[in-house]
Amino acid sequence: PKSNIDQARDLLIGDGKTPLKLEYFPIEGLAEQVRIALAVADVPFDDIRIGYDEWGEKKSTTRHGQLPEMTLPNGVVVTESMAMLRLAGEADPEGKLYPSDLAARVKVEGILGLVEDMARAWRPSLFVFHRPELLGHPSSDKWENDIKVATVKKVRSNFVDKGLPRFMEYFTNYIKESGYKYLAGEDLTIADIAAYQQISYFKKGVADYVPKVCLDPFMEVNEWMERVISHPKIASYKASKAK
User: Fold this and answer.
1) Angle at the Cα of 183 (from 178 to 188), degrees rounded to 5?
2) What's the pLDDT at 106?
3) 152 SS3 class
4) Given pLDDT bands bounded at 50, 70 and 90, which one contains residue 58?
């Protein structure tokens, strides 16, 4: 029987005649971790960016009314970004991105869960600005601006002051346990890629009241991030996208 690596590569590459397609908006977002994992696993793919002006027409053609979507060479559509990430990791010829060893894989899965916990903890800080009615506030068009601004500041500042340090402590512990390498051990895994994409967001300064320097106190995390982005295959992928 074929190994999981070979099966994954067969699914993603096929006979090499029909390219893998990955469709998402023209941003990093949920698809970037998948793009990076595919690049590390040496899986070629068509990186299709759907413009926001195209989305209205495109939406009805997607399976769940959302992106990203991955279309395998055999025509099968994969719809969830974490399923895509795991499949890309499984296809790593070196067997490191998503290790077959069960104990190692459980550790990777635990870290992926922690990344999702952090994303969930941050989500109210996004919704309070973009979709406040989901949190019991008036909709943006009916909410007094001064009150909205004050509420957004309070919610996001609370995350930066309390939530972010708590999660950085958890990630720092993983880094220390690995001997200051990657989160799950000696080798880069999809857990590093997912965590990097989530954590690096907070250094971009794109969210009001989340300053670029909010991660400065966490030296081990910053050094780990530098190791991730300096990985030869990730550095090569990022350089190709910067052109």
Assistant:
1) 105
2) 97
3) helix
4) very high
95 DSSP assignment: S
- Which position has the token pair 């290790």? 99
Contact 22, 46 (CB under 8 A): yes
What are the C-alpha distances in Å from 132 to residues 123, 137, 160, 170, 210? 11, 5, 19, 29, 18
d(CA 200, CA 202): 5
What span, in angstroms and rounded, lies between the C-alpha atoms of 192 and 33? 10
Q: Distance (Å, rounded) from C-alpha 83 to C-alpha 164?
A: 26
Whether residue 112 contacts residue 190, with contact meaning beta carbons closer than 8 Å, is answered with yes
What sign does the dihedral 172-175-180-181 (CA atoms) show? negative
Q: Residue 51 above 80 pLDDT?
A: yes
φ and ψ at residue 49, rounded to 5 degrees: -105, 120
Backbone angles phi, psi at 131, to 5 degrees: -140, 65
Q: How far apart are CA 186 and CA 183, in angstroms?
A: 8
Instruction: Report pLDDT digits (tens) over 69-116.
Output: 999 999 999 999 999 999 999 999 999 999 999 999 999 999 999 999
Chain centroid to Cα 99, Å, comes to: 19
In sign, the C-alpha dihedral spanning 175, 176, 181, 183 is negative
Query: Model confidence at 140, in pLDDT bands (50, 70, 90)?
Result: confident
pLDDT of 128 = 87
